[in-house]
């Protein structure tokens, strides 16, 4: 075989070995879990702020209800089109009587929310309680909210604590090249 033809064929073989290969996209579930102090803060700064941040979470140690806002980070660059699939807060009660904690989830940019969902959770003392928001709560059968921007507000009564925050979504393990 002609040396030029051999060199050309060898070049094709080597090039094929390094060419991107089309593969089926693999979706991998992700959960960003954290103590609430990483994601939540009181509405009111200064001396009227009675949120005490500890490793276990953020507690209202004051005598009045206090609003908090929570914002969550996700890897939007690799997230599938479903967007965030759920947001969960774990709540606790350091008091002696049950109380309600109202929370509202907002999805999307300000002025163009795709979801605005409110829930109230009764929090019993000495029991780990949780509240989860999914698209189903907004009347959708979609797997996710279709957006990566999610935030939440809650009103914490005295002796209430937000322990953990969990944001679930799916990423494409093999994004297109």
Write a structural description:
By secondary structure, this protein is mainly β. Helix content is 9%, strand content 44%. The chain has one helix at 3-18, and strands at 27-35, 40-42, 51-54, 57-60, 66-71, 86-93, 99-107, 115-123, 129-133, 150-156, 160-172. Strands 1, 3, 4, 6, 9 and 11 form a six-stranded antiparallel β-sheet that branches. A five-stranded antiparallel β-sheet has the order 2-5-10-7-8, with no helix packed on it. A hairpin with a 7-residue loop joins strand 7 (99-107) and strand 8. The model is unreliable at 2-23 (pLDDT under 50).
Number of helices: 1
Return the structural class: mainly beta
Can you tell me the overall shape?
A: elongated
Q: Please give the share of residues in helix.
A: under 10%
Low-confidence runs (pLDDT<50, min 5 residues)? 2-23
Which keywords apply here?
1 helix; six-stranded antiparallel beta sheet; single chain; disordered N terminus; 177 residues
Brief characterization of the structure:
This protein has 177 residues and is mainly beta. The protein is 9% helix and 44% strand.
């Amino acid at each position: 075989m002609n040396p030029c033809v051999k060199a050309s064929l060898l070049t094709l073989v080597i090039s094929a070995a390094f060419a991107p290969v089309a593969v089926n996209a693999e979706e991998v579930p992700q959960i960003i879990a954290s103590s609430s102090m990483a994601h939540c803060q009181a509405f009111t700064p200064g001396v009227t702020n009675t949120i005490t941040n500890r490793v276990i979470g953020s507690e209202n140690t004051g005598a009045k209800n206090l609003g908090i806002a929570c914002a969550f980070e996700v890897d939007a660059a690799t997230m599938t089109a479903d967007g965030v699939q759920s947001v969960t807060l774990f709540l606790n009660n350091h008091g002696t009587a049950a109380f309600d904690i109202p929370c509202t989830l907002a999805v999307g940019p300000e002025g163009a929310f795709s979801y605005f969902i409110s829930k109230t959770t009764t929090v019993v003392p000495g029991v780990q309680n949780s509240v989860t928001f999914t698209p189903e709560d907004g009347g959708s059968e979609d797997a996710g909210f279709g957006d990566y921007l999610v935030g939440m507000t809650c009103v914490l009564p005295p002796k209430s604590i937000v322990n953990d925050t969990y944001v679930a979504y799916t990423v494409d393990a093999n994004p297109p090249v």
